Each structure stands twice: as structure tokens, then as C-alpha cells.
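Our preliminary data section would be incomplete without showing what the modeling component actually yields. Below, a chain of 242 amino acids is followed by its predicted structure, encoded as C-alpha cells that our downstream tools consume directly.
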Amino acid sequence: MKADPAVQRRLLDLAEVDAELNRVNHRRRTLPELEEIGHRERELQAQRDSLVAAQTSFGDIDRDAKRLEAEVDQVRKREDRDRKLMESGGSAKQLEDLQHELQTLARRQGNLEDELLEVMEQREALESDVERARAGVTEAEQRLADVQHSRDEAMADLDSAEAKRTVERESVAGTLPEPLLALYDRIRASKGVGVGPLQGNRCGACRIELDRSKLAELRDTAADDVVRCEECGAILVRTKDS
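Predicted structure:
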């Protein structure tokens, strides 16, 4: 394949644009915000798990408190009923039984109220745990939202850079003959780098030195011949510094 030396040198311009596009894509895949988002998502999930655990514990103690409150209310109603029965009179045996039951109910009420007081204290502490856990979730959500916003801004900058470089690539590629461009794209797709300058006796694409026989062959090759590196297969562009 033949191509004007000036046209071949434009391949180096195209390669620089492609290298910048590669850097943009690499940056997009390795944004530090992406790793931090993963960290913040795990943190948020842990906070949500803590909230669920706190709410579960609070729900259990709240049910205990309501059960004890109901039992205390039942004892009080039973006491009221017994006192009304005593006030209405009756046999000595009936009054004695009622008095005994009232004493039993009083002890029962005292025990229940002591237990209820302890449960209410636990309930208050667990309610505070729920509020702290809920605040932790809110803070974790905000931290996640902040880093997501930073990621979106960084992605927008990269999208802008990519769009600019894509226009540049189309402009440079449009000046190249189709066969030469196709060869470059094919090599680049398979090798990663499609072209490199001949820098002294070294290939600018793979950085490997060419042997003497290859250099001698290049000196005898016409300037418009498209030559390739025997090591990496990239197109070798001869410049004034070659």
C-alpha cells in the first residue's frame, strides 16, 4: 500500500486523538466516585439494616408495654367491681372473700406496674435507638446522593471531552484515504495501537528496537510506501526525526 508521507503523518494525529479517547473511556471506568458509591451504598444498607433491627426491637417492647397496660387496666376494673360488690353488702364469707381478692389484686397490680415501668424505660431507650438509626439512614442517603452528584458531574465532563475528541477524530479521519484508514483501524482493533513513529531505530508503538537489516530495508523503501513494524504490526510512520 502506498500513501503520501504527509498523509501517513496524519495517522499520528489520529492516533493521538484515539489515545485521548481511550484515556477518557479509562477515566470513565475508573472514576474514584464509582468505588465510593459502592462504599456508600453498602454503608446505607448497613444503616437500613440497623434501623430495621431497632424498629423490630422497639416493636417487640412496645407490644409488651401494651400487653402490660391492658393487664393493669383489667386488674383495676376487677378491683372496681369488687369494691362495688363490697359496698353493696353481702354475707360475712362473701365480704371476706372479696377482701382477700382485693389484696391479691393489689399485689398483682403492684407487680404489673413495676414490670410496666421497667418495660417503659426500655421502650424509651429503644425509641431513641430508632431515632438515631433513622437519622443514620438519612445521613447515609445524603452522603450517597452527594457522591452520585459528583459522579454525574465528572461523567458530564468526560462526555463533553469525548464529544469534542470524536469531532476531531472525524475531521482527521476524513482526510485519510479509506484503505489506509481501514488498515489503521483494523490493526488498532486487534493490537490496541495502530500506528507509531519511527524514532531512531525504535518503533514508537511497541518501543522495540528494529534490527539492522530492517533499518537498512526501510532506508531503501520508497517514502510513500506504507511499512509496518515486524514486532507489533503497527504502521511505522517515518518522520524527519526518524
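The chain has five helices and four strands. The chain has two domains: 5-24+177-238, 31-172. Preliminary results of this kind motivate Aim 1 of the renewal.
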